[in-house]
Amino acid sequence: MARAKIHFKEGLISNDCKNVAKYNLAESTNSTMKFKKTDVNLLIKEALNKIDYHLRCEHERSVSEDYIRGVKSHVKTLIRYYKIYRPTVEAGMKLIQQMVENKRAGNTIRLYVNALKVWASAEGIEIKLKSPKVTRRAKVYLTKLEVVELIKKGDSRSSCMAALMAMSGLRAKETVELRVNDINFKEKYIHVRDHGQGLKPHQERNVALTPECETFIKAWLEDRDRLCLELGLDNTTDYLFLTLDGQPIKRDYLYQLMARLGRKARLDKKTNSKILRTSFGTNGAMSGLETSVVQHSLGHADARTTLTFYIATVEEHCKQEVIKKLRYFE
Q1: Are 46 and 6 spatial neighbours (Cβ–Cβ below 8 Å)?
Q2: Which tens digits make up the pLDDT trace of 248-291?
Q3: DSSP assignment of 254-265
Q4: Which domain-ending residue is among 61, 89, 122?
Q5: Helix segments in the chain, DSSP class H
């Protein structure tokens, strides 16, 4: 089969690939027709190319690299897993129905519906879809005891990374991007900086270095010094977390590592960076931290994000705070 040529500026695939041309998206009336595997791969390349051009050059407002990457990832899943080969209202309604039946979270459904709309817009198709209202599932978080059990199952490096997310509220991306010099033991803070990787301005901040977290960091630094000595690396200016061959740890590996620790600890809950951050927010609120403190540590621009997504027991917490602190007749 002739290899398709992708032209970025036009966002189109040239007509030298007849297999893709006969499935022209603008002319097709069937959004779920049968495709060969090779045709699906070419369709994905074409769709992602158009979306990339649309979001970078034609969108009414600038969007972050993370947003572009997320939309493209969701569209790829729509084509490959949900077998949607043309962004239409009919395809969108079937998608919503299937995701609701599979009990997917409301936020997940909204992300996929938005990705379908962006894809349609890139194709010059206007579709109107509304995400359904889905009852929020109970937030999953780890209790303090579960966090301790999780951390105990790791070596010095994985325990340190888990502690930074669960005890200081760092994101997975922020954790793997840390440098040694970002840890200030004297002033007791961790500097989370914008490393030019798509972080928003409000995410650059100083977060508290707790005594427990400090213990895990120092334990890892001792092992890291030995590793750097063996590899002949400068142990003061490189990334804080390294692989055994001296390379920076990738975010995907961190996800796998946290899931592995959860299985070792025999926890009946998912263990990933999002849940560890939710655990930080929830345990912090239940321990009496102000919402503004939790918000700053998590790096949220809006306190509503903190309350909605990162404090699992927010209603119970608010009730207890009002009962405990609000007095009219002293």
Answers
A1: yes
A2: 899 889 999 999 999 999 998 888 888 999 999 989 988 888 88
A3: HHHHHHHHHHHT
A4: 122
A5: 18-21, 37-53, 65-80, 89-101, 106-122, 144-152, 156-168, 172-176, 211-231, 251-264, 273-286, 291-298, 303-309, 314-325
